[in-house]
Design goal:
The structure holds two protein chains of two kinds. By secondary structure, chain A is of the alpha+beta class. Chain A has helices at about 10-40, 45-75, 85-115, 125-130, 135-160, 165-190, 205-235, 240-250, 255-295, 310-320, 350-360, 360-365, 375-380, 385-390, 390-400, 410-425, 430-440, 445-450, 455-460, 480-490, 530-535, 540-545, 565-575, 585-590, 590-630, 630-640, 645-680, 685-690, 700-725, 730-735, and strands at about 300, 325-335, 340-350, 365-370, 475-480, 495-505, 510-525, 535-540, 555-560, 580-585. A six-stranded mixed β-barrel of chain A has the order 2-3-8-5-7-6, surrounded by four helices. In chain A, a hairpin with a 4-residue loop joins strand 2 and strand 3 (about 340-350). Helix content of chain B is about 35%, strand content about 25%. Chain B has helices spanning about 45-55, 75-85, 100-110, 115-130, 145-160, 175-195, 205-210, 235-240, and strands at about 5-15, 20-30, 35-40, 60-65, 70, 85-90, 165-170, 195-200, 210-215, 220-225. Classes of the chains: A alpha+beta, B alpha/beta. The structure holds adenosine-5'-triphosphate and magnesium ion.
Chain lengths: ~725, ~240
């Protein structure tokens, strides 16, 4: 056994491949480090650096162990065996390099944790990297890259020396590793929760480790279980016996490679499909939640005009046990003009009290209050704090957010801060709110406000005392969305003119009617469309402004169970008994949107399904080769009395097994990715996506359908080779060499 | 009724537009428990005849009757069952399944034929012990010598207790001493079980011991010689 040849060229190829991988890893680290050094730490960025570091460390430790193990083994290889000297030299080098990486990693870790004890989590890394001069940083990265390449060489060598170990030792080692993994798994499962411990990024570290160990454990378990599974399958019947045995025993090298490749292909395609569909599902669910949070579950309205006698209708609607709330509204298209800009909007007059039971508007307010709509006097006498001194900006929204998954509150804060900054280039932060709201707009805001560039002089002349005074006019309140507020540069307490196109009749024809309002609140729903389009006032104000009389545009209804909205709508239609009223559940109200989403998802399924089809081709090639290789055995089986159905069954089963293995691995991997993304959050740029974390929603039905699809595709890909095998002429097959 | 009756069996291959008559009006009758060998020069059509008798191939014309049942006109599924239950094959290059060990190889016809797993294995073990391979049950074909492989193949052919064993140069690949042992085994099986053997061979030694020798040439039966060879064979062969 000592003359077992170690094939160095093959090792070289493997090492080259790993080096490429490693280079990618280094690139990732460099990008990560660049981001750390330049920008503010986003969620999870320091952990990325630490994670890479930890991965390298683990690699180095494993390499060290393996290298140390390999050295005495190589020593025992007969002198003069080809490549022995090189192997030994490389192993020595590898051990040294692994040690180097471990020491380097330990130093970095010590520096990070040493400096970051009382700072923001992860701040240590930033601080450290900021203090390291650029060239040195680059040199550091290059050196660590070199070192880790050495590590990989050691690992490859270790893998090579693995075959030098006697089988008994290998078993003991594997058993030991398995036991270690098992204990780690059990300990982590008992001790560490899967939820991140807090909001700060570092809290996710241990749960992430637990997840990784769990994944490793499951992987190892399945690797151990697959042969057992095939063995169990062999007992089922002759077909299963032959199929499982053919898969289990080593075929010719090429066939093994292409077989493994097809399993990988199936796995990756189904994994990507699951992940993509889950992310799309996440976006859809997020959208659905936001839409249904801000719109009616059941909408009652008329095609044209308004609804008379609506109070009776409202009574009937509220009497239904499935209805959680109902609220009337008036709606009309208007234009908002501020000092700097103007924008179209949908004005909604709402019953302030009942509206909170129907939509999330009340909870979505990031500034101001909904009650101000009914209480214009209070709105006129707001304290400077409520008008938006920066202090209240920072603390305000964080306290009001109800859902941690929802968009990052700092987005809103940062936004308003930026707007304020633009308004006051001098940065008189403390007095800004009062100066802007009170002093500079004494009467009609739109007319009096000067462009920001000209403002500093103005401000200097009027030393703005922040006294809450009767300096403001009493105007009806209006609640606007954050995007509209940003476009019009509005803030709570500001005045804004609302223009209705259906105006009064003037001497030269219809003249648009204008009326000033005061901003009572700013809401953020996370739906861009909604945040830029909707403005809310109280119902009577709207009725008066839009001149609808006592009529309303419609009634919004919230139901207890979302999915039963259509039934409830049907019941309400009968209860109301007014055929001119349209009673529509949310599915119908948003039919186009959800229809488009479903179509998009289907398109994605088809596109990624093509990846599965390609994987299917791999399976096809594998099976064709397999049949080719097994031709003589097919002939023997025919001679022994196997029917063609049996032969078809054997090869179909083999294809199905390949498919099932691939799909199982792919689904597992995909689920893991989704699970991790869901638990630990993948940061998104909220400016682009209007949502700060990648939403992920795993639908079990989808998971199942992806699995079934890939299994089916594999089965179909197997069909032709299997039928071909069954059609082989037994005599020719027996002659086959 | 004889075990096997072959009437006017013809096999014609179309090769390059020309008709190639490989078997030309073969008539043959084989009784139960008989032991006969087929000889003849290479290309005489011996293997072709064997494949036709084993229903692995279809004749161009003529009939093959097993106990009166014409197997040339039966559907493939029934033929598969027929092969499994009635015919045992031994080939020159043993043709064992490489993924399975000796025991599993021998048990395979049983599994295909729907015997319970335990029963198939029990029979296989008994047969392997009978052919002297009780110690080699878990060896894969690659871990067996040529003679051992051929003994495993013989055991496999006998597992379903077939009426007839068709062997195509079973010892053609073995040295004469190892071949002799396999021949001995066939005679013994014929004696103890009464199984009919039809053996294609080039071996003069085997032919000399056979009670009946059929010689073929160019697709025809040249001679069919029965003789009272070694005494113990005859009485067995004639008992039903
Ligand atoms: N598929 C085929 N197409 C055309 N000719 C064939 C085919 N199969 C066999 N033959 C021909 O049939 C003839 C008989 O072949 P067969 O294998 O039966 O000979 P054999 O007697 O077994 O010879 P050997 O002793 O060498 O095994 C040969 O001449 C061969 O060329
Ligand atoms: Mg032949």
């Amino acid at each position: 056994m000592s003359e077992r040849r170690v094939r160095l060229p093959a090792l070289g190829g493997l090492a080259a491949g790993l080096v490429v991988l490693e280079a990618c890893a280094v690139l990732v680290l460099m990008v990560g480090a660049g981001r750390l050094a330049s920008s503010s730490p986003g969620p999870g960025t320091p952990e990325l650096g630490l994670g890479v570091l930890a991965a390298w460390g683990a690699l180095a430790v494993v390499s060290l162990g393996v290298g140390l193990l390999a050295l005495p083994r190589i020593r025992r290889v007969q002198r003069g065996t080809r490549g022995r000297g090189r192997l030994q030299a490389l192993a020595l080098l590898a051990v040294a390099l692994s040690l180097g990486v471990i020491i380097q990693g330990a130093l970095v870790l010590a520096a990070v944790y040493g400096s970051a004890s009382d700072k923001v989590p992860g701040g240590g890394v930033v601080e450290l990297l900021q203090h390291v001069p650029g060239p040195l940083l680059a040199a550091l990265l290059v050196v660590s890259a070199l070192l880790s390449v050495g590590c990989l060489v050691a690992l490859v060598l270790g893998a090579a020396s693995w075959t030098l170990l006697p089988a008994r030792w290998r078993r003991i080692w594997l058993g030991g590793l398995d036991a270690l993994l098992l204990t780690a798994f059990v300990l982590l499962t008992v001790l560490v929760p899967l939820e991140p411990l807090g909001r700060e990024p570092r809290a996710a570290l241990w749960p992430a480790i637990r997840l990784a160990v769990m994944a490793l454990f499951v992987l190892r378990l399945s690797v151990r279980l697959v042969p057992k599974l095939l063995e169990a399958l062999e007992r089922v019947g002759p077909r299963a016996l032959i199929a499982a045995r053919q898969l289990r025993t080593r075929q010719s090298g090429f066939l093994t490679a292409i077989g493994g490749l097809s399993i990988l292909a199936v796995a990756f395609s189904s994994c990507s499909l699951v992940t993509t569909l889950s992310v799309m599902g996440g976006f859809r669910q997020d959208l659905k939640r936001k839409i249904l949070g801000n719109h009616a579950h059941v909408g009652i309205d008329v095609a044209h005009g308004g609804i008379d006698g609506w109070r009776a209708v409202l009574e009937r609607v509220r009497a239904d046990p499935a209805v959680r709330g109902a609220s009337a509204y008036v709606q009309g298209e208007v234009m908002l003009t501020s000092a700097t800009n103007l924008g179209g909007a949908l004005l909604r007059g709402i019953e302030t009290r009942s509206a909170t039971a129907v939509t999330d508007l009340g909870r979505n307010l990031v500034h101001g209050r909904l009650e101000y709509l009914d209480d214009p006097e209070r709105l006129a006498r707001l304290s400077p704090a409520e008008l938006g001194a920066p202090a209240s900006l920072v603390t305000g929204p964080a306290g009001r957010r109800h859902d941690p998954v929802d968009a990052d509150p700092t987005v809103a804060t940062g936004l308003v801060e930026r707007i304020l900054g633009e308004l006051a280039p001098d940065g008189g932060a403390g007095t800004l709110g009062a100066a802007d709201g009170g002093a500079s707009t004494p009467e009609r805001g739109s007319a009096a406000v000067v462009p920001p560039e000209a403002q500093p002089a103005d401000e200097a002349s009027s030393p703005g005392g922040p006294e809450p005074g009767p300096a403001r006019r009493v105007l009806p309140g209006i609640v606007v969305g954050q995007e509209l507020a940003r476009a019009l540069r509005l803030y709570v307490g500001d005045e804004v003119d609302v223009v209705s196109p259906l105006g009064d009749l003037g001497p030269t024809g219809p003249v648009p009617r204008t009326r000033p309002f005061r901003v009572a609140g700013i809401f953020y729903t996370g739906l861009f469309e909604h945040d830029v389009k909707y403005v809310y006032v109280s119902l009577p104000t709207a009725q008066q402004f839009l001149q609808t009389g006592d009529r309303i545009s419609g009634i919004e209804v919230r139901v207890a169970e979302l999915e039963r909205a259509p039934e409830v709508a049907e019941r309400l239609r009968r209860a109301i008994g007014r055929p001119e009223l349209r009673v529509r559940p949310w599915q119908e109200l948003n039919r186009h949107l959800f229809g488009a989403l479903a179509l998009e998802k289907l398109a994605m399924f088809v596109v990624l399904g093509i990846a599965i089809v390609v994987a299917g081709f791999c399976v096809f090639a594998t099976l064709t080769l397999l049949v080719q290789e097994k031709t003589r055995e097919v002939g023997v089986l025919r001679a022994l009395g196997a029917r063609s159905a049996t032969l078809v069954g054997i090869f179909l089963l083999e294809g199905a097994l390949i498919g099932a293995l691939g799909a199982g691995a792919g689904l597992g991997l995909g689920h893991l990715v989704c699970f991790a993304a869901e638990r630990f959050g993948v940061g998104l740029n909220p400016e682009v996506y209007y949502i700060d974390r990648l939403p992920v929603h795993v639908d079990p039905v989808e998971l199942l359908s992806v699995g079934v699809t890939s299994a089916l595709v594999c089965l179909l890909a197997t069909l032709y080779p299997a039928l071909f095998a069954a059609r082989l002429d037994p005599v020719e097959a027996l002659r086959h060499r | 009724m004889p075990l096997l009756r072959v009437e006017k069996l013809r096999k014609v291959y179309l090769h390059g537009g020309k008709e190639l008559v490989v078997l030309d009006d073969i008539d043959l009758v084989v009784e139960r428990g008989e032991m006969l060998c087929v000889m003849g020069p290479s290309g005489a059509g011996k293997s072709t005849l064997l494949h036709l008798l084993g229903t692995l191939d279809q004749p161009t014309s003529g009939r093959i009757l097993y106990e009166g049942r014409d197997v040339t006109r039966e559907p493939p599924a029934r033929l598969a069952a027929f092969r499994n239950a009635t015919v045992g094959f031994v080939f020159q290059f043993h043709h064992l399944l490489p993924e399975f060990d000796a025991l599993e190889n021998v048990a395979m016809p049983g599994l295909i034929g729907g015997l319970p797993r335990a029963e198939a294995r029990r029979r296989a073990r008994a047969l392997l012990e009978e052919v002297g391979l009780g110690e080699r049950l878990t060896h894969r074909p690659s871990e067996l010598s040529g003679g051992e492989q051929q003994r495993v193949a013989l055991a496999r052919a006998l597992l379903m207790e077939p009426r007839i064993v068709l062997a195509d140069e079973p010892t053609g690949n073995l040295d004469s001493r190892t071949g002799e042992a396999v021949h001995e085994l066939m005679f013994e099986m014929n004696r103890t079980r009464g199984t009919t053997f039809l053996v294609v061979t080039h071996s003069r030694e085997l032919a000399a011991r056979m009670p009946r020798v059929v010689t073929m040439r160019d697709g025809r039966i040249e001679s069919d010689v029965r003789r009272a060879a070694d005494a113990p064979l005859e009485p067995r062969a004639s008992t039903p």
